[in-house]
Amino acid sequence: MTTAPTANRNPAEVEPLPFVRRDMLPEHGGYTDTGCHLHPSCLRCPRAVCIYDEAHDEALDMRTRDEEIHERREAGEPSVHIAAEMRVALRTVYRALHREARGRPLAMRGWGA
User: Would the pTM count as exceeding 0.85?
Assistant: First the structure.
């Protein structure tokens, strides 16, 4: 494989880099700007963060929610009250508590039952 010129090498001694197929360059890709349900064009969207990039934030919110469920349950609050105050299903509270009982870290939330 060839190398790019460096400060210590004479540019005349360096072999040229191999050519790249034209269809491998990003400007020749088949990108169609279809947007999303909020805006018809990604490239002209006024949002600072794309809705497709917000999935990680949702996972973080769910881990935070699970931590709060654990703290409230350890404080002795009934599961029914936790579910009602946090506006989640009672099953969601039980799932979070079950993950803790099995010794799974909260960061693993959502990786199977």
Answer: no
Place of tokens 């799974």: 104
Would the pLDDT of 22 be above 80? no
**Tokens of residue 98, six digits:** 């079950």
How far is it, in rounded angstroms, from Cα 74 to Cα 95? 15
Least Cα distance to 65 among 16, 1, 110 occurs for 110
Contact of 33 with 17, CB cutoff 8 Å: no
Domain ranges of the chain: 53-108
* Distance (Å, whole) CA 66 – CA 55: 17
Q: Helix (H, G, I), strand (E, B), or coil: what is residue 88?
A: coil
Cα–Cα dist 36/17, whole Å: 39
Burial of 84-93, coded b for 16+ CB within 10 Å and e otherwise, reads eeeebeeebb
Residue 39: phi and psi, rounded to 5, are -150, 140
